[in-house]
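Exercise 3.2. Students should predict the tertiary structure of the chain below and write it as structure tokens, then compare their answer with the key that follows.

Predict this chain's 3D structure.
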Amino acid sequence: MSDNKNELDQFKWDYTKEIRKHIRVGSLILAQPFLHDEIFKRTVCLICAHSRAEGSFGFLLNKLTEFRIGDFIEELEELDLPVYFGGPVASDSLYFIHDNSMQLPNAQKILDGVYWGGGFEEMKAALATDKSKAKNIKFLLGYSGWDPGQLRKEIIEDSWIVSESKAAYVYSDKADLWKEILENMGDVYDHMAQLPERPEFN
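Answer key:
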């Protein structure tokens, strides 16, 4: 980030305020505009677990793969739902976030209208018999994980922006979700949303 300090200085960017924000289950973290890591560049991640003792994990919400759910679950082929890349950990495993209108056993609440996991067989049966329940569900390959203290360290290093979440963001299929959330945060974040990925080329 240091090479791009002047770009952010013009907006009076004070990244230390991100350090003061509390991360909790249901928070969103957004990659800083100049984070060029190919996995996390301009991503939005929903935090699903966070503790000092056990670390953190979550799912990237805006990295679409070329797969459809029918490639993994034949019974759901007619739904033609997209599959997203949730993160580099266990990237050959399928996960799902949903609104729990299917009343799945053992579903874990993240925030109002957003749950993750639950009975896999029950999910398949519910969607196969009632396609309307697929309105608020997102399938993901893999997840993103941080060891204890690692995520806070990355925030201190100015890699992430912390934001509140809402169900509409989680289920969004917009390619510019990262930009939309920053714009909605207002103030300096709105300016950051407009910054090009590679300012040296502008």
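Discussion points: Residues 120-129 form the longest helix (10 residues). The radius of gyration is 18 Å.
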